[in-house]
TrEMBL record:
It holds the Pfam family GLF. This is UDP-galactopyranose mutase. Its cofactor is FAD. SUPFAM superfamilies: FAD-linked reductases, C-terminal domain, Nucleotide-binding domain. Keywords: FAD, Flavoprotein, Isomerase. Belongs to the UDP-galactopyranose/dTDP-fucopyranose mutase family. GO terms for cellular component: cytosol. InterPro entries: UDP-GALP_mutase, UDP-GalPyranose_mutase_C. The keyword Transcription does not apply. It comes from Coriobacterium glomerans (strain ATCC 49209 / DSM 20642 / JCM 10262 / PW2). Residues 166-378 form the UDP-galactopyranose mutase C-terminal domain.
Amino acid sequence: MQTVSGLPEAFSPESYDMIVVGAGYAGAVCARRLAETAGFRVAVLERRDHIAGNAFDFVNDEGILVHRYGPHIYHTYNEDVHGFLSRFTKWTDYQHRVLADIDGTLMPVPFNHQSLLLAFGETRGEELYRKLISTFGADKKVPIMELRKKNDPDLIEVADYVYKNVFLFYTMKQWGQTPDEIDPSITGRVPIYIGDDDRYFPQAPFQGMPRHGYTALFENLLDHDRIDVFLNVDAREIFEITETTVKVLGRVYGGEIVYTGPLDELFGLDLGALPYRTLDMRFETLDIDRFQPVATVNYTTSEDFTRITEFKNMTGQIVPDKTTIMREYPGPYAAGTGQTPYYAIIDSKNRELYEQYAERVQNLTNFHPVGRLAEYRYYDMDAVTRSALDLSDEIIAYHA
């Protein structure tokens, strides 16, 4: 792998079989798969000054490994995805646990047996827990909508408590919406876990953290002699999309293009901007060994930030008498301001606008949008890896 900043004067698109825009999960997985399986020469163009996309991590001045763009917690149910990524990293045995600060009391989320006891008291909490077991069975994750469907006062009491204290205020902060604007389908998916397992992903068979960090994983992923990485390159400045072709540096490009950036920005927002929520992440290093009992504490009934992450609790690093925490403040995203678009605001109107942009490239047989920005959807890391592997296999089959 050759990594350089900017495009050299001698850069020739025609010398590459594929151009990948973006060095996050979608782009890096496609680059590796096509380079080693199909023998493609691949140029990866990355707008930022680093690889790994939003999974990028680095060691700060205090020697603590932090995630620049917020906590990334690896978990998957997909054996193929886990097998592929495990070629490029060893994993720690980290099991993610989240607590919610509800009026000053820390309770496990998803809401579980222990949460019920803390919220309703030992006697009443145990009664409600037994009712949940008799209705749904043990060790089940059940959306609160299912509790309401039973039309049982006890189950409705649990659903209402979780909705009000775990979901409502937190979601209003996260999405900038009032209760009546929040899609009922989102409300209904808020789960409780009928059991004592306090892990955030209790049923995911593969979970952990990359032993040497996410950036190291991506360095290994892109380390192939048929892959070149060009940082600080904005594809919008060198791409021109027509109805039938993609031009790169003014010349029609005949190879494959994997595009992982925002489609609306590729077209200069000429139909309007696709709305996102962004996050203002504020880091603070404290002269203490530990700030909170778990990696993530959600503030669901108070504060103007949504959560605090403590990185040492995720990575297992031992850095005596120092710890770095990060608070997340959600807000509206504005293109061209240097902000990062994190969460697509997906409703029928915004989806229709996305489809108008997507129609402009759907007849370009060599242009492939993939990933959360290019597809205007939310992806976990394992899901975008799966999508990139599937796309890679389609391209390989086409050229077979």
